[in-house]
Automatic annotation (TrEMBL):
The gene is greA. GO terms for biological process: DNA-templated transcription elongation; regulation of DNA-templated transcription elongation. This is Transcription elongation factor GreA. One of its GO terms (molecular function) is translation elongation factor activity. Residues 13-77 form a coiled coil. The keyword Coiled coil applies. Residues 7-76 form the Transcription elongation factor GreA/GreB N-terminal domain.
């Protein structure tokens, strides 16, 4: 399967690099120490500490590999390239839910940085992908599991 681009802001890139560094330098040593300690208990055939440490090691190595792949395929979103004419990755979008007459603000980010609880939605999410390419004042229909939502785009900023 071909690797796909991972869109990141400078902040997002730094967070992933910091996490990778932490996993490689600190967590690897901690898990190696747990394995060493578990081995000192003797017979590993019924050693739950050893089994757990090996599972932790496998999960850690999987996360490291995933982060390395993401960083290798990272496409940095340059704030100077973000337009306020149409919604794109990196745009901050103020929308109005036409059914409930509520305003919400979203920042469109790549899937690696998505954090819906903080208003950062993925360009691949239903709302994010529906907003992409639209202009201020456009009414956008979003298909969600519960049906359809209509948003009117009020402003687009960086």
């Amino acid at each position: 399967m071909p690797e796909r681009d991972v869109f990141l802001t400078e902040d997002g890139l730094k967070k992933l690099e910091d996490e990778l560094d932490e996993l490689k330098t600190v967590r690897r040593k901690e898990i190696a120490e747990k394995i060493k300690q578990a081995l000192s208990f003797g017979d590993i055939s019924e050693n739950s500490e050893y089994d757990q440490a090996k599972n932790d090691q496998a999960q850690l190595e999987e996360r490291i590999a995933k982060l390395e792949t993401m960083l290798r395929n990272a496409k940095i979103i340059d704030e100077d390239d973000i337009t306020t004419d149409v919604v794109g990755i990196g745009s901050k979008v103020l929308v109005k839910d036409l059914e409930y007459d509520e305003e919400m603000e979203f920042i469109i980010v790549g899937s690696a940085e998505a954090d819906p609880y903080n208003g950062k939605i993925s360009n691949e999410s239903p709302v994010g992908s529906a907003l992409l390419g639209h202009k201020s004042e456009d009414i956008v229909e979003v298909v969600v599991p519960d049906g359809k939502i209509e948003y009117q785009i009020l402003t687009i900023t960086r």
